[in-house]
Specification:
Blueprint: E1 2-6, E2 9-13, H1 38-68, H2 72-95, H3 99-113, H4 117-124, H5 127-139, H6 155-165, H7 169-177
Antiparallel strand pairs: 1-2
Length: about 200
């Protein structure tokens, strides 16, 4: 706090962060009651930061491969190193995710990276690995080849992305749960892996 003195009187001042106040029973966006979708909103708040970091890391990997790992042997060595680093960084987080959160992550990774999970595996591993994981996904009635559809089955997710991108996520989340969103803390958004060229 700070104060000012006028004619012998001391007045104290402080600056408060702005808050949003919503009447109960009304949704934040276009009158929609997002409380009916509270599970999706809760999961999105937790998972979307991982998709954003994934996009940044994929761009880093692609840039490194293009610049330093054009030879297949160097590329494979680098991809293996990246896999180990990603496992060290995120394996515990992924283990703690629910099935619905894992599926949401796949949809959001597709949106942010522009590739389905199947294509990502095929691109960075091989067709055998991609088909193997597609088979596993089919056992759980999922399809790794399925693409993100912002105007169809993923329209609700897309609306949440737009709220996030508009910078009004905290207010929106509060309007649904009446509490501030818990922030997902990710250790890093940058990979340490490098191409190790033979001397």
């Amino acid at each position: 706090m700070y104060y000012e003195v006028h004619d012998g009187d001391t007045t104290f001042f402080d600056t408060l962060d702005p808050i949003w106040v919503f009447p109960r029973g009304r949704g934040f966006k276009k009158g929609k009651d997002w409380r009916k979708e509270y599970k999706l909103v809760y999961n999105f708040n937790k998972i979307y930061p991982y998709a954003l970091v994934g996009r940044k890391m994929m761009a880093q990997v692609d840039s490194t491969i293009a610049a330093d790992a054009k030879k297949k042997s160097l590329r494979n060595q680098y991809i293996n190193q990246v896999e180990k680093e990603l496992l060290a960084l995120f394996s515990q987080d992924i283990k703690n995710m629910t099935t619905s959160q894992g599926l949401l992550l796949l949809r959001l990774v597709d949106r942010e990276c522009g590739m389905s999970a199947f294509t990502i595996i095929k691109e960075y591993e091989n067709s055998f690995a991609a088909n193997f994981w597609q088979l596993i996904a089919k056992l759980f009635s999922q399809d790794l080849k399925s693409r993100y559809d912002p105007t169809g089955k993923d329209a609700k997710i897309e609306e949440l992305v737009q709220i996030w991108d508009a910078g009004t996520w905290d207010q929106f989340y509060y309007s649904v749960f009446w509490e501030a969103p818990k922030k997902t803390v990710i250790k890093t958004d940058h990979l340490q892996s490098q191409v190790k060229k033979k001397k």
